[in-house]
Amino acid sequence: MAHAHRTSMGLDSRKMAFWAFIGSECLLFGSLISTYLVYKGRSLVGPYPHEILNIPFTSFSTFDLLMSSLAMVLALAAVQRGDMKQGKLWLLVTALLGLVFLGGQFWEFSHFVREGLGLTTNLFGSTFYVLTGTHGAHVTVGVIWLLTLWVQALRGKLGPGQAMTVEITGLYWHFVDVVWIVIFTVVYLIQ
Amino acid sequence: MSEQAHATTGTYLRVAAILVMVTLIEVGVFYVPAFHTVLVPVLLVLSAFKFALVVMFYMHLKFDSRFFAFLFGGPLLLALAVVVSLLFIFYGALRLRTGV
After folding, report:
1. Is A170 in contact with B19 (Cβ distance < 8 A)?
2. Whole domain around residue B81: which residue ranges?
3. Are the C-beta atoms of residues A40 and B31 closer than 8 Å to each other?
4. Is the N end or the C end of chain B the one with fewer CB atoms within 10 Å?
């Protein structure tokens, strides 16, 4: 790393701060998931979850996000060993898989709106859109971050010396993935 | 407490294969009526397993400093406590009102 910022414990200060940030994000998503569960099954009008949720489609989105996590660790491994050709490739693959997920979410939301489920239609609509929309916003930030790194790599400004930057980006991306693992189970599979 | 070397590419690929297989099992369990009585606990266990795999191997918590595990695990446990407490409060209150 070009400019190492070590704490008195010998740990990278940026990485430590980022783990603390991820901890705070656990509380954010914990509160949103709690809200969804508390209001689950209390909608007075439809559409209800079992009428509208598309499990095969969402399973594909889950597969897509899991594969993006694999691409992210492969990007980090490539950057750490100085193989920037592979590093650029896997960073781009990760960002593209993130874009595919976002496209799927856009299609899903559009479909739900056409089916009559808006943000204020019922409790399911409100809690569903806020929870999955917040997650989608996190994915969007992740995709922009990944593309920024990819452009930096193309311009030759990303190398093994900046591996910690890629690792921190990866921490964010994998966190977005684990949040989706929980959402897929709690919202889609446990109806 | 120091940061250590990460897993190998082979480990990453094996973890990805396990994650895909567990996801297929989750979807399979959802569609098989025989599993519907145990659907919730089975899905929660499988989801927790996937969560742990990603955090340990892809986020490198298995190989990194335990302090990072503390920074992540502490708020995670607090978030879980919030979820469980709110469910008890709301469903407990509902049961008191309805008498069910």
Report:
1. no
2. 65-100
3. no
4. C
Query: What whole-number distance in Å separates Cα of residue A174 and Cα of residue A128?
Result: 22
Note whether A77 contacts B30, CB cutoff 8 Å.
no
Q: What is the ipTM of this complex?
A: 0.91
B76 shares its domain with B86: yes
In a domain, A44, yes or no: no
Contact (CB<8Å) B75/A23? yes
User: What is the C-alpha separation between B58 and A75, in angstroms, rounded?
Assistant: 12
Number of domains chain A contains? 1
Mean pLDDT across A175-179: 97
**Do B54 and B81 fall into the same domain?**
no
Q: Residue A171 is part of which domain span?
A: 51-189
Q: Does B65 touch chain A (CB under 8 A)?
A: yes
A139: domain CATH number?
Answer: 1.20.120.80
Helix (H) or strand (E) holding A18: helix A13-38
Q: Is residue A105 part of a domain?
A: yes
Closest Cα in chain A to B29: A189
Q: How confident is the model over B21-41, as pLDDT tens digits?
A: 999 999 999 999 888 888 999
Record the tokens describing residue A191, joined without a space: 């109806």
Nearest Cα residue in chain B from A186 = B44
Hey, is the C-beta of B52 within 8 angstroms of any chain A C-beta?
A: no
| pLDDT (mean) for A16-43 | 94
